[in-house]
Design brief:
This protein has 199 residues and is mainly α. The chain is 54% helix and 5% strand. The radius of gyration is 19 Å and the shape is globular.
């Protein structure tokens, strides 16, 4: 069975170095800007809140355990992240339709409106960042970045034995994206101490 070292040598080391560096730069810049959009809504919603609201919008009401499993994080983390969203009225707690004793989390009308505002602002950011790109280039970049994030998610799941983390399955569907824009994607990795080089 080939080792990781054997697999690495099958590829161009220089290209791999360039790829990992660009991923590190992307992670840092995405964290610095938070891909928060433009105008007054810039940096107005953190990544955790965006991912939670987006999942509730895409998949409907669900309990804390289901939400945590789908996002690949523990229930205590979801509970902590959801609390301010409930306090500000973006998420509401309701009774499970089939089990009145169970509580589910649901995106409120205010939460949906807020999410749409942030999405719109982030779409505009994508327009500005990819200005000069062709539609095919935007689509190819989105496809490859989705594939990359999915592979990272699968690798993390395999190493931790837990569920896969946030993936393309919960991203805003591509058909709803206005023509000439690219869907928003959260950074695939945490920030890094690696130095940033400009091209």
């Amino acid at each position: 069975m080939p080792t990781s070292q054997d697999m690495t040598t099958e590829f161009d080391p220089g290209l791999l170095d360039a790829l990992q560096h660009q991923v590190a730069v992307f992670a840092r810049r995405a964290e610095q800007t938070r891909l928060g959009g433009t105008g007054q809504l810039r940096n107005s919603m953190d990544r955790a809140a965006y991912l939670l609201l987006n999942r509730l919008d895409q998949e409907g009401p669900m309990g804390v355990k289901a939400l945590a499993a789908g996002m690949g994080i523990d229930s205590s983390t979801v509970t902590r992240q959801v609390a301010p969203l409930v306090d500000t009225g973006l998420v509401k707690r309701t009774s499970h339709p089939e089990d009145g004793r169970a509580v589910v989390l649901q995106l409120s009308p205010r939460g949906l409106a807020r999410l749409e505002e942030v999405r719109s602002s982030r779409r505009q950011l994508m327009v500005e960042v990819t200005e000069g790109w062709t539609p095919d280039e935007r689509e190819s970049f989105c496809t490859l970045l989705t594939r990359f994030n999915t592979a990272l998610s699968a690798r993390q799941s395999a190493h931790t034995g837990g569920p896969a983390t946030e993936s393309a399955a919960t991203a805003p569907p591509a058909p709803s994206t206005p023509p000439g824009t690219a869907p928003t994607t959260e950074s695939p990795a945490d920030g890094t101490s690696e130095s940033t080089q400009t091209s």
